[in-house]
């Protein structure tokens, strides 16, 4: 529930009080004695869902933006008339279960930090994320998400569009662009410093680090994360609940890939930079478009009817542009998803062939421990370069010749997969067998 306070302009007292009486609202009128253009202040409690329609009706009486309107949280209201009013709005099917437009606008502004604070927190979160990636520490990476101030600009962009606040929209766009750019610079500088100072041992394969490797090949599942983050951000904002946890989700879609971009720049890996950049762009666009669509669907419009057409055109234009950009970038996601499918099919085929071969009587003393696959590039389209089969055997036993039959079977697997939807022209694949002695007691 909310406590609303409205200053009454001269000549508007009767119209305002009549409107409140018609709505069945309890109010308290305080005389204004400062000698200015206002004659009083009226205070009244309202259910959260009633704030916007009541303020719209008061605006029809002639209250403009020069009059002060303050909306406060109210813990408890003891009043029979208020109970009836609350029940009326709860049972009204046409009543939107959301906070008022004015509250939404104010909350969006509160989520946007000052420029200095935003830049500092963005740099810190990017550096911490890069450190967490290089340390292969999920806990540190999550910590970088908690401090990232990325939800504010994204929500400000969406709110600025639906309520036709061009200044807020431009500020949100600017902060998002500047934040992404400075995060990449900070991540690259920190990763470069770590490499030059040998904090990361020379020769370390950064692409083999699990926290890094997981962000190299974004697929359509990554798109689902970003879409969910945008929906959750808009719903939390419109519902009046805390957006802190949702902010972590939005940061999860952006901060780690930004760190991977910095690592790719520092280590001179253009494929890594490309894959992570596409992931960041898709996530940013997805968060913005879903937040925009959700807020418009929830019924948020400008406060003046003559601005609604302008806001509608702007919303359609921006949603169309964002969707078009996402579709273009999704081609890369489609390639990654397709590549994941075909390599998974190849690996499953090889795994089955190895198990079938080891089921033969001549290999009964061998135990399959692992099958490892190597590829020519971490960024799709990937082609297999080597297959390593690790088998266990009893001590002092004679090693059975396994490499040659495995090589023939893997060549056959490549042949069967050389069709649409699978690996095409994979080239030679090196097959190795490692024997490990296993002693049982």
Automatic annotation (TrEMBL):
Keywords: Membrane, Transmembrane, Transmembrane helix. This is TIGR00341 family protein. Pfam families: DUF389. It comes from the Archaea. NCBIfam families: TIGR00341 family protein. InterPro entries: DUF389. The chain crosses the membrane at residues 117-135, 141-163, 175-200, 220-238, 245-267, 273-297, 318-338.
């Amino acid at each position: 529930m909310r406590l609303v306070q409205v200053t009454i302009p001269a000549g508007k007292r009767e119209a305002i009080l009549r409107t409140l009486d018609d709505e069945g609202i309890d109010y308290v009128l305080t005389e204004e004695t400062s000698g200015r253009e206002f004659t009083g202040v009226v205070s009244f409690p309202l259910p959260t869902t009633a704030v916007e329609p009541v303020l719209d009706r008061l605006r029809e009486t002639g209250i403009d933006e020069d009059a002060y309107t303050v909306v406060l949280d109210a813990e408890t209201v003891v009043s029979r008339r208020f109970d009836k009013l609350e029940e009326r709005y709860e049972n009204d099917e046409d009543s939107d279960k959301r906070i008022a437009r004015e509250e939404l606008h104010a909350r969006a502004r509160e989520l946007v930090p000052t420029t200095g604070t935003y830049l500092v927190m963005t740099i810190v979160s990017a550096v911490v994320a890069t450190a967490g990636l290089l340390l292969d520490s999920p806990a540190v990476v999550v910590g970088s998400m908690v401090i990232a101030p990325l939800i504010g600009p994204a929500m400000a962009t969406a709110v600025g569009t639906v309520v036709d606040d061009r200044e807020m929209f431009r500020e949100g766009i600017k902060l998002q662009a500047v934040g992404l750019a400075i995060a990449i610079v900070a991540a690259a500088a920190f990763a470069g410093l770590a490499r030059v100072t040998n904090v990361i041992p020379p020769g370390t394969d950064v692409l083999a680090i699990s926290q890094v490797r997981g962000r190299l090949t974004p697929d359509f599942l990554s798109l689902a994360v970003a879409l969910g983050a945008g929906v959750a951000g808009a719903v939390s904002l419109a519902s009046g609940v805390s957006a802190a946890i949702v902010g972590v989700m939005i940061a999860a879609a952006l901060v780690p890939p930004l760190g991977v971009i910095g690592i790719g720049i520092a280590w001179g890996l253009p494929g890594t930079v490309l894959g992570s950049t596409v992931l960041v762009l898709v996530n940013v666009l997805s968060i913005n478009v879903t937040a925009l669509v959700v807020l418009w669907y929830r019924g948020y419009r400008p406060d003046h009817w003559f601005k609604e057409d302008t806001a509608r055109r702007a919303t359609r234009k921006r949603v169309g542009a964002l969707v078009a950009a996402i579709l273009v970038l999704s081609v890369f996601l489609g390639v990654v998803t397709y590549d994941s499918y075909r390599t998974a099919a190849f690996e499953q085929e090889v795994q089955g062939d190895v198990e079938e071969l080891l089921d033969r009587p001549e290999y009964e003393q061998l135990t399959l421990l692992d099958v490892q696959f190597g590829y020519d590039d971490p960024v799709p389209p990937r082609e297999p370069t080597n297959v390593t089969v690790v088998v266990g055997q009893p001590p002092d036993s004679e090693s059975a010749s396994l490499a040659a039959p495995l090589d023939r079977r893997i060549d056959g697997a490549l042949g069967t997969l050389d069709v649409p939807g699978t690996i095409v022209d994979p080239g030679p694949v090196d097959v190795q067998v490692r024997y490990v002695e296993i002693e049982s007691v």
